[in-house]
Batch of 2 targets.
Target 1
Amino acid sequence: MSAPRVEELRRGQQQGDRRSGITLPSIAILALLAVAVSGCTAAVDIKAAPDASNPGCATILSHLPDTIAGLSRRETTGISTAAWGSPSGVVLRCGVAVPGPTTLPCGTVNGVDWIVQESGTTRTLTSYGRTPATEVILTVDDSHAGAVPAALGSAISLLPATRRCVGHADVLALPTD
């Protein structure tokens, strides 16, 4: 059997290879579909927290919203993690160390207490009084800062609160004499 001639190969490409039924345009369409299905954005690489395998994290993760302040949820690589926005404007890690009493600012949004830390262009919110604790890191942007803890509250509040934030008004007045 002799090798096919160049003219036969070209004719097969133009008319489609009758032996396999696959044409070059079909292959190109399949390749484009594969790219479209796989998505254009890669998964966000987030390191899992030490207690990420805590069953409470599964409860939280299964109730997280698809969007927060107009930011769409993205796929992540770490267990018990989530991210919203492209680039990620909001990153969540469940299973971080449970914070003890602190002098850092602590506020309540929709029944969930959050310890707030700011550093440069990021704000870190850590749930307070619930185990496992959840950390949320967001870009300091007042346009969606309040929407983030409000949107996460329904998922975080599924875990029972064992402690609450206290403020100056909650502390007994001590004698000055």
Target 2
Amino acid sequence: MDILVIIAMIIHLNNLELSPDLDYSTEARVCVQLRFKYGDHKYHSVDVVASDLYDKRVTVNVLYNLDAGKLSVLFVHVEKFLANGRANYHFHVKFTVHQPLRDQNIELQKPYDKPLYDRYSYDDGVRSLWVFSNDKPFKPDSGTRPRTEARIKRCGKTLQLRIYDGDMKYYKFDVVATDMCDKWFRLNVIHNADEGKVTVFIDGVQKFVVNDRGPGDHYFKFGAYAPLANSSNHMESRWKEIKIYKK
């Protein structure tokens, strides 16, 4: 009996074990897709396999019985789903990879005449960035507004989320969420480049979907940036547990 066994850890992929008899770059095939949607793990986009799986580690086992043409999905060693295999298709073993965020991956921009510690701190896992409306730009010859931002290298996003008077907006137009100042919230952004869609979640609830802006030079940044008009004197944002996943 030929059974392909995949063992993985979610959310951080760990202890991945694949059959030593297969070359996974060319030969491995798995006819199942397990997708996250609103915290549920689904078989493709239909059947719910397991629920409430955000922000936790769970052991996932996928057993593919090639002779019987059956797929079995187990969570924490309990079978949760059984389905027929999809024969005569070409499939590859793929998984989403967590990209670690380290200090060497971050480039910090702040008013050029200020030391970094005057506009940025990193304490107990929290990155705090602040700027004042009368600060200088990030370099002497720049005509941009004051900013203290962290730019993640080798990453880009085709979306801006800004806070105006407590409202989170897509650029300065559509309201994504309200009453967002002076509190912690969880922000998730999913960019499906194949479909050209960007989806925004606040505290696990989908709030906004928009078309991306196509190919271009984009930066993945977070921090405080003074708007063109009616800036507050002091602007600050705090961030923690930043994670990047790449498919």
